[in-house]
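One thing: can you check what follows?
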Amino acid sequence: MTLSEMLRRYRKMAEEAVGRLLDAKRGSVFYEPLRRYVRGGKKVRPAILFAVHEACGGSGDPGPAAGAVELMHAASLIHDDLIDGDSVRRGRPAYHVSNGFESAVLAADFVLSIVLEVSSMYEDRRVGETLARAAREMSEGEMEEVILLRSGEVSLSSYLRVVRKKTASLFSAASRLGALIAGADEEAVETASRYGELIGVAYQLRDDLLDWGSDEVTSSLRPEDRGEVERLAERYSAEAAEIASSLGSGPPVEFLREMAEFAFRRVF
């Protein structure tokens, strides 16, 4: 099975998982706006969760956690567009444009309530702790970015710190959750978590390199920083691919390896 075929399979699983979580809230004022908003997209984070879960044995039900991860990602995009004043997302009007400022602010609280419910579905308290840590780091990363831009002092190290918190934290959480729910041992859980962090950083660096200088963050860095970001993207992608191999063998592991290599190939 090719990378694109496996991604389609995992994307379908993710869409079903998100749908089940939202359909349980069908009477909510947030139901229709969020249902429309989460349609489409690559669903990379829950795809990684599903792949790690299968690579680690596949016991337990990863669906609710995968749905929660994708909803957290959606909430972060809603707030990103609101903070940045962007009016378009994925070729469609941004959430706050279609549904209003108030809904955009409060949708994250609604998503958080679903994430709390999902945490209570699992006996392993580390599932809830992982989701909570990701939510905390994502919000800190977003705020730290705002502070950096206001100060006008964006360094390579501060940029990378924001990338790790704002983006890589949820990738790491998704990968860790896949291993936890599968009942993997502590070493495999930590390996999966590290894989997620590395590929999360690599993916963000990839996106930034493709659009270098077109946003406020990368345009604030020194011209020579671009070369270092390129080197880091290559290194993190290679490390993630190597780590994936230590999780086992078979199609899910090959998918994880190819996802890591893909993050590098898309840049160069």
Q: What stands out?
A: The chain has a mean pLDDT of 94. The chain is about 75% helix and 0% strand.
